[in-house]
Amino acid sequence: MGPINPKLADYISMFVSEREAMELGPASCVTLNDGHKMPVLGFGTYAPDKVSVPNSNLLATKVAIEVGFRHIDCAHFYGNEAEVGRAIKMKMEDGTVRREELFYTGKLWNTYHDPELVQPALEKSLQDLQLHYMDLFVIHMPMGLKPGEDLIPRDERGHFIYHNVDLRHTWEAMEKCKDAGLVRSIGVSNFNRRQLELILNKPGLKYKPVCNQVECHLYLNQSKLLGFCQSQEIVLVGYGILGSSRDEKWIDQNLPVLLEDPVLNDIARRQNKSPAQVALRYLLQQGVVVLAKSSNPERIKENFQVFDFHLPEEDMKELGGLNRNMRYVEAKVWRDHPQYPFHDEY
């Protein structure tokens, strides 16, 4: 094995020991800044509308738990928390896993940023999931939308209806959810550095965000944001690791397919691994917690098999050179929102 990247020394120390960080076994966890532990490999559950197989999320989540995933990532906006919750309940009831062995992440959607709406939103998700608490609850995006039943509200002309709420007030309501025992850890998602600093510099801050969940992959390695998060003991959690779901509602279909990259495929052949496994492993060795999404049982199993090899320094450098600061998930439809996060460099 090659030496661990020295610039990650302090951050990697959060992954228990250096030896374990280099080996990254299936049970590897990162210790969050509030003392709780998060598995470094998670199972993502977002499914585009075009995925219409009945109970696909239930079946996929069951397979994920069976093969060893203990970190499940979902969101109210995905519209499948009840299905994912049934899968979790079934695997607990058949003895595959105990609740305390699972790490569940949920998200506060943009229409619930008003402080008085935060706890009811969390409670509704818990009800749908049939869980008593979440392990992690994050603000899904920094961009508020008009409160109401419509998750993507528009006016009569079809324009989005924005709703500006001071994110610091939303964060205070998140802190109260933690104090109430409804969630163990709280964090954010899709925040840029400036928005993170808004929370971190808030007078009377009780709990720092434990994580920032953002798009992160070989074409967008988030090195600057990762460095900032490391300096603040905030874990960077990456979604879209394999190049996103390519959901036509959000993704430009003309963008290159990450898993077809020739450099990635060449390294995968040398390692006798799949391109997906190498893409996951690269970010794990960079200290990123990764979320892998698939509804295919064989690919779910394959995505979990990333703990039995180590990428040498030369492969890491070659893969790092693929970065092109390219987003798949730009959320351009909201680029005129005052809190749109992607105008900033990071």
From TrEMBL:
> Which UniProt keyword terms apply here?
Eye lens protein
The answer to keyword Cell membrane applying to this record is no
Query: InterPro entries attached here?
Result: AKR, AKR1C, Aldo/ket_reductase_CS, NAD(P)_OxRdtase_dom_sf, NADP_OxRdtase_dom
A GO cellular-component term linked to this record: cytosol
Question: What residues correspond to the site Lowers pKa of active site Tyr?
Answer: 107
**GO biological process entries:** steroid metabolic process
Which residues are the active-site ones?
A: 78
* Record-stated family: Belongs to the aldo/keto reductase family.
**Annotated protein name in UniProt:** Rho crystallin
Q: Which organism is it from?
A: Xenopus laevis (African clawed frog)
Q: What is the lineage of its organism?
A: Eukaryota, Metazoa, Chordata, Craniata, Vertebrata
